[in-house]
Predict the structure.
Amino acid sequence: MARRKVSTVINIYSKKVKDQIVELCRNFFGKEDLEFLVGDVFQCVDELIKNSIKANYKFILVLNKLYDKHLLDQPDADEDTLNSQINTLIKDKSSFDIIAPEIYREHNLVEQVRRILNEEATQIKLKDKAYISKRECNEAEIEQLRSLKRLAQAKTLLKKNSVQTLLKIESDGEFIFIEVTNTAPITDIDLRRIHEKRDEFFQYHKIGRDYEFFVNHLDTTDSGFGLGYATIDSMLIGIGLDPYQTIQILAASDTTVILSFPIAELKKANKS
C-alpha cells in the first residue's frame, strides 16, 4: 500500500484549525475502517498541540531573558554575536537544563506564559465567533485583537526565532503515525515531570481509580505537561492500546511526540 502523508504548521489553534485536523484524522482513519476512533484520536492530538504551544511560549520567554542577560553583560556586542552565543548555550543541553529552569523561576515566567495564553484564548474566541458566523472579524473585534499586546510580542518572538508547532499524519498501511513537533528543546526537568506524571497515572489506573488522579491534579500550575500526557494515556487505554508502546517522545533540539496506531490490531479489537 502506498505511503500517505500530510504535514501542516499550527499558527493559531482555532476552531477552524481543529475542524481541519478532525477531517485529516477522518481521512486517514476512515480509509482503514477506523472512523469510530476519530474523536478519541483528536483528543490525543489536541492535548499534544496545546502542550506544544505552551512549551513554545515558555521557551521563547526564556530565550528573551537570556538575550537581555547577555546584552547587559556585553552592552557593546551586536545582535548577531549575542544570538550566536545564545544558540551555542542552547545546544549545550547540560548547561541549558540548568540555566532555563533558573531563569523561569527567577522571572516568574509561569505567570507571563499564563497571561499570553489568556490573550490567545481571547484571540481564538473572537476568531471562532467570526468563523462560526461565516464572516470576517468586524471592526470592534479587530480593535480587540489589536489590544492583545503580550500575545503580539510573543508571536513576534516565535517568528523571529523560527519556533513553531508542526503536525504530521502518515500511514504506511500497517500503522497510522501522528507526529506533533515543537521546534524548541525540552529541559530534563520538564521531560522528567512528564514521565513521573504518566507513571503516577498508571499506578492509579492499575487499581481502577483513574478519576482520583485527575481530581488530585486539578491545579495544573506546575504540572500541565504531565497532566496532558496522562489524559492521552487514559484515551489510549480506552481504545485498547498500551500507552508506553504507542507514545514515543524524541527530545533533541526539537521536541517531537509520535503516536503509532496499529491498524490491524485496532480493526481486530473492534470486531471482537
Notes: The first strand starts at residue 4 and ends at 10.
